[in-house]
Amino acid sequence: MSAAADLVVVGAGPAGMAAAIRAAELGLRTIVLDEQAEPGGQIYRAIERVAREHPQRLAILGEDYAAGIALVRAFRDAKIDYRPQASVWQVEPDQRVFASTPTGTECVQTRHLVIATGAMERPMPLPGWTLPGVMTAGGAQILLKSAGHVPAGRVVMIGTGPLLLLLAWQLMRANVPIAAILDTGKADAPARALRHAGSALRSAAYLRKGFELVRSIKAAAIPWLKDIADIELRGDARVREVVYRRNGATHNQAADLVLLHQGIVPNANLGWALRCEHEWNESQRCFLPRTDGWGSSSLPQVQFAGDCASIAGARAAEYAGALAALEVAHKLGRIDRTERDARARSARRQLASERRIRPLLEALYRPNDPHVVPADDAVIVCRCEGITAGEIRAVIKQGCPGPNQMKAFLRCGMGPCQGRMCGLTVTELIAQGRGMSPAEIGYFRIRPPIKPLLLGELAASDSPADAALPAGHGSQRAETAAASDAAVVTTPMPR
Amino acid sequence: MTLYRALDAEPREHLDMTIEGRRVLIPAGISVAAALLHAGIIPSRTAPAGGAPRAPYCMMGVCFECLVEIDGVPNRQGCMVSVAAGMRVRRQLGAPVCEP
Ligand code: FES
Fold it and tell me: Chain A partners of B61 at a C-beta cutoff of 8 Å?
């Protein structure tokens, strides 16, 4: 199946929806490919259904979630070819986009691409974090939004960041008891964040909401504990307890569900697979694609918009999406520079205003060690292959220079998640081990397909199968193909 | 033991599906991974490398901890697939076996 477009947008969260709406207004033939079955991204997950059928759930989730309905309606009304359940796994240099759908792979030829793949939670490798019953805070929030499900047993929340507190507030509103919040933020973070207060003060609405959130969590008498050290999750076939040290004493907290959060980072594999240039951002403690004020990347036909370009939240993502679409229309000759700039003015002003709160938030909720880079050698870093921090450190000592060599040594980052769960930790482990900066170490080389595919689908799709598996592994390919149609192609071996 | 329960007072339709060969009633409109957590089918798999117990972790398609067999097809991401009447879901225990 094939189609042609001026613009393909990958992702139907706020950035992708706003980009597509603006592009359609400007007369661009626009296709939106999104993995989920419904528009909204993770932030407005299931918003249409919830607004239509579940008023109680809407009230629990709060007004920032409910605000998404306006954008989703505008998206539905616009002249956009929206394709849900389409998971992009490859973009060819000639701008053919391949997406896996329930009915097989679709191929779209486009002139331009906007990547709006949003964010994911920063992996938080702790002792025991692979136990069943340990999840991300975002995962619990997705269950609340999309399924109307809330934790049933004893819940312990661990980490730092606005999303953790927002979820605590939402669970409170749903009458879900929280056994404890173990706050991993540094004690001196508020003092450090103060120097950004000047710019943040101009975001009065955000500050007010933040204070309100903190006040109501405190008023609810949930144990909210700071200065936590040596966290360990223990259990057997499930998590049973959280062990931690505080004020010189060891505490054991019984738990059925542990929700982790250490901030969010770009969901970046598509940009990496396209070889877009990336830069290390120390304030956000992750790599970001190199972009200009329009979201233009190092590749002429590719823009980034929203949290996948730089973490700034849903509102900022909307404005960034609009700006990216204007630039695409300009590049395609639909509007001249003057018109582009004139139409961009209000979005640009509002984007700047949205971003004012970020330096404060980044300092206040800075993810810190050992919750990003584990001190304990026994902690699993690569969940897919079960590789520990100690194994990685040993290989660094033997002279392994970077993440790609690490793949060859340990298969680290080569499981089905393709490094999403370990990539940033591996970069930082190597950086620390070699006394260098993460910028110098770089990231895994991500190869297509960026989502595992059924081999039958790959064979049937008239797709770039040879690009998907590297030369010199023909035998491996034939073997897998012979084994089963349902076998999964994972990340190919490093060349 | 169920890890997630439905919100009180939310009207729900339920549908009939099979998990691990057992017929179960599951709220409609949720993902397979949500169904496993709700029905307490935990661990939902074991890691092919090492055999450790695992269960859904991210619920948004990035961690691949929710891999299950759905209607005979292995390695499906349970958090990305909605439940359907008559669906058959099996846990994947141990390394995947390729039948000829
Ligand atoms: S739970 Fe993470 S991919 Fe499904």
Answer: 35, 87
